[in-house]
Amino acid sequence: MRKKMTKRLLAVILTAAFTMGMLQGCGRKLIEDQAVYPAETAKSTEEAYTEGYAEAEAYADMEMPVEEEAENGKAEAAAEETNREAMTERDNAKGSYAESCYDYAWKENTEEYSKWEERGFCSVWKEPLSTFSADVDTASYSNLRRLLTEGYSLEELPRGAVRIEELLNYFSYDYEEPKGQEPFGVTTKLGVCPWNEEAQLLMIGLKTEDIDYSQAPPSNLVFLLDVSGSMSHEDKLPLLQESFGLLAENLTEKDRISIVTYAGDDEVVLRGAAGNETRKIKKAINQLEAGGGTNGSKGIETAYEIAEENFIKGGNNRIILATDGDLNIGLTTEEELEELITEKKESGIYLSVLGFGAGNLKDNKMEVLADKGNGNYAYIDSLREARKVLVEEMTATLLTICKDVKLQVEFNPSVVSDYRLIGYENRALNREDFEDDTKDAGEIGAGHSVTVLYELILKEPITDLSEGEWLTLSIRYKKPAEDTSNLLRYPVSYEDYQSSPDDDFVFAAAVAEFGLLASDSAYAGDASLKHVRSALKGITLDDEYKEEFYELVKMAE
Predict the structure, then answer these.
(1) How wide is the angle at C-alpha 18 spanned by C-alphas 16 and 21, nearest 5°?
(2) β-pair partners for 458
(3) pLDDT tens digits, residue range 325-366?
(4) E strand or H helix at 472
(5) Measured between alpha carbons, how far is residue 141 from residues 73, 169, 290, 441, 537 in Å?
(6) What's the pTM?
(7) CA spacing 20 to 30 A to 323: which of 5, 167, 201, 532?
(8) Could you give the CA distance from residue 551 to residue 38 in angstroms, rounded to a whole number?
(9) What is the average per-residue pLDDT within 447-475?
(10) d(CA 174, CA 539)
């Protein structure tokens, strides 16, 4: 009996150790260090715990020293009780918190990113027009920062995680301000391409006017918060609560705030509270707890219903969805979610998405939701990032200035022979889509900037580059309440060429070069981390985020 109890007790100890290791060691290195569970082998939570317990039982079959057996025999009753408690704990561990923590540890296998094909060089003779949708999302950069900080090398980054346009658009630049009735200022620059000696680099920048939130129209905001079991980890629901607490502190009495949560089902936690009821809003947020499945589609439908009930004509009507994107009940595929959101956005209510957490991040689904919901997508990996997105860039995040913004560049075949748009693979449009006002495109908020880079191969021989236009930039956009687009055109010529590039040009080029390396681009040419670091060292980094990027490059190097 004592020997049997000894085995049970050892099994309990080993099982508990295994379970605690799972719950406390939700990190990449821990899993990689365990020979039984190599990082490249994905297992379900059920399989992991079953195998772990079986392993503990196997260890318990080993013979123990007589003295230890005798000592353990004195506590048979206690051991039986401990055994029962451990078995209960093991079963409970298969619940939502353990599943969330386990997913975090196995993030190589459970995070999901959209697959896209890198755009190569196009012949101006065959394709003189380059057409795409504007994009102001920044999620890819902050998520990349998280991955590198966790210890990933550039070679280990998940395929599809790096979207170069989002790296570029994370940062601010000294672009032209809007003039007259135009909603944004346009900046164009030309210079040498740092990683391709055969190419020139074209930089296009759009910037909308900054608006103080106190001067903005009233907002009808619905916080749609994921409180499912997968949100239990500290970098998910707890960080979400702190982040929305920051936002709550900056709302005004003219705003109307509602809160909808979803897990296995949805719940309306707060309905139409005044924006200056800060304590009431924060209390509702801080009382949330995680548990259950993830019926995100039901939560989305309820959020739109609440937003419609509190709709402010002429105001900013928006749902802010905060989630890790792990939708597993109801509509779950990208196609189903796209159809749902495309239908809902016709109500004039926009949908922005904030991603949280690591391990089972569903970046692909969140990008689709924001794209089709006329909103923007940011990833929150820290309270500092939450402050940037929800406080410092509050109007850019919440207030749309232009919708369905499309860009089309027409190259002059007498000057440019080939071109390559860097990034924006997920934003490509057909040339005929540019004039089609029914075709969805990107939205730009107040104070937002959009940065675009092209590699250009010039035609040879050219006797005088200073004569004639190199290309023409055309932009279509709609005002938020209108369905008919407006057209703007901007010629680009040798006058935009910089023999000694300014700091903005050098910085944007360095970010793109880093992005080429991080995405394992086939067009990286002579790009290197050493060159990126050298370029950054030679310019003035005028804000903390650019300085942080420099440190990130050194870390990757």
Answers:
(1) 105
(2) 416
(3) 776 655 556 677 777 787 777 788 999 999 999 988 889 888
(4) strand 469-478
(5) 58, 9, 27, 21, 20
(6) 0.80
(7) 167
(8) 31
(9) 89
(10) 14
Residue type, 239: L
Query: What is the mean predicted confidence (pLDDT) over 247-275?
Result: 94
Q: What is the mean pLDDT of residues 35-42?
A: 33
CA triple 331-332-334, angle to 5 deg: 110
Name residue 346's amino acid.
E
- Contact criterion met (CB below 8 Å) for 503 and 203: no
pLDDT in tens, 92-118: 443 443 344 433 333 345 899 988 899
Peptide bond into 501 cis (omega under 30): no
Where residue 130 falls (left for φ over 0; alpha for ψ -120 to 50; beta otherwise) is beta
- Give dist(CA 185, CA 175) in Å, integer: 7
Distance CA 210, CA 216 (A): 10
Predicted pLDDT of residue 263: 87
Please say whether the beta carbons of 201 and 195 come within 8 A. Answer: no
Is the pLDDT at 440 greater than 60, yes or no? Answer: yes
Backbone angles phi, psi at 505, to 5 degrees: -65, -45
Angle at 325 between CA 97 and CA 295, to 5 degrees: 75
- The DSSP secondary-structure symbol of 158 reads P
Confidence at residue 56, expressed as pLDDT on a 0 to 100 scale: 43
Three-state SS at 289: coil
Give Dmax over CA atoms of the chain in angstroms.
98
d(CA 202, CA 192): 9
What are the chain's domains?
A: 2-110 (no CATH), 125-211+401-556 (2.60.40.1230), 214-398 (3.40.50.410)
- Kind of pairing, strands 316-323 and 350-356? parallel
Q: How far apart are CA 261 and CA 270, in angstroms?
A: 10
Helix (H/G/I), strand (E/B), else coil: 14: helix
The answer to whether residues 369 and 351 touch, using CB atoms and an 8 Å cutoff, is: yes
Name which of 176, 267, 186, 264 is nearest 223 in CA terms: 267
Q: Which residues contact 428 (CB under 8 A, 6 or more apart)?
A: 119, 131, 132, 133
Instruction: Give the separation between CA 430 and CA 450, rounded to whole angstroms.
Output: 20
In the sheet that holds 219-226, the strands lie side by side as: 266-274, 256-262, 219-226, 316-323, 350-356, 377-380
Looking at residue 435, its pLDDT comes to 97
Tens-digit pLDDT profile for residues 393-405 = 999 999 999 999 9
Is it the case that residue 151 has pLDDT exceeding 60? yes
Closest CA to 325 of 375, 363, 371: 363
**pLDDT tens profile 496-520:** 999 899 999 999 999 999 999 999 9
Tokens of 270: 């707060």
How would you write 494-533 as a 3-class SS string? HHHECCCCCHHHHHHHHHHHHHHHHCCCCCCCCCCHHHHH
Q: What is the dihedral of CA 93, 96, 98, 100, to 10 degrees?
A: 170
- Environment class of residue 279 by beta-carbon count within 10 Å: exposed (0-12), middle (13-18) or buried (19+)? exposed
User: Dihedral through CA 150, CA 526, CA 122, CA 166, nearest 10?
Assistant: 30
Place of tokens 């929150």: 380
